[in-house]
Amino acid sequence: MVLLQLENVTKRFGGLVAVNRVSLEIEEGAFVGIVGPNGSGKTTLFNVINGVFFPEEGKVIFRGREITRFPSFKRAPLGIGRTFQIPRPFASATVRENIAVGAMFGSQGHQLNVDRSLEVADEIIKRVDLTAHRDKPAGALTPVEKKLMEIARALAMKPRLLLMDEAMAGMHPNDIDQMVAFIKRVASEENIAIVAMVEHIMRAVIGLAEKVIVLHQGSKIVDAPTREALQDPRVVEVYLGRRPEDEEC
Ligand SMILES: Nc1ncnc2c1ncn2[C@@H]1O[C@H](COP(=O)(O)OP(=O)(O)OP(=O)(O)O)[C@@H](O)[C@H]1O
Ligand SMILES: [Mg+2]
Hints:
By secondary structure, the chain is an alpha/beta fold. It is built from 9 helices and 10 strands. The protein has helices spanning 42-50, 72-75, 95-105, 114-128, 143-156, 173-190, 202-208, 226-231, 233-240; strands spanning 2-13, 16-27, 31-35, 57-62, 65-66, 80-83, 161-165, 193-197, 211-216, 219-225.
């Protein structure tokens, strides 16, 4: 079943078209990678899906319901969670408290009190192996640990759709492999669709995604199963700035 649908979505900043007539569908429980060079509109697309920005044109439909102009705080309870490209923890709150906030404002928000939210946080902390850091202030974590906490916080929201904006950038390849395996497991156990933005780490795209969507200058240029997408000459050109036939030169 289709979980998320975008219909001809356009988002402009002044004269700049950051997202240009993008249509796409994300199936329930799917893993989709969004790739594209710097400035191609990936973060803006996420922001349109999660309600940070409203598009000038087009529709955002989640579980059959049009949410184009719902603010973010009304989308999280519907089951749309995200991580940020630049983690923004509450620095003086503990790791546990930061993750509990995710649980409190997520899709179970109206059902969870503080104690239950802290319990959910503890379960997730164990699963992502942050136990040693549980009671530290979030501001004391390393950048990689902050990314991990960001993922934990998003998972605590119990989303149906999780948008991951470069959630694994800067991680060691071994940690990425572990993280990918972990996310895949949790997502399939909990039927979470993941849309992950992973352009700087093709390795993670391959490990994570069944389908890859490629953006270029705000437009969707490829939407295909991963293997096919990565062999697409347009992808090679966008990434490497040359055509595949030039490679031997
Ligand atoms: N808040 C904003 N105000 C004005 N222009 C913006 C804003 N956010 C993004 N842009 C512009 O929109 C275009 C798309 O940016 P976006 O951040 O979505 O790209 P991206 O694919 O996420 O890039 P990166 O790989 O660098 O994270 C860029 O030209 C960017 O400068
Ligand atoms: Mg970005």
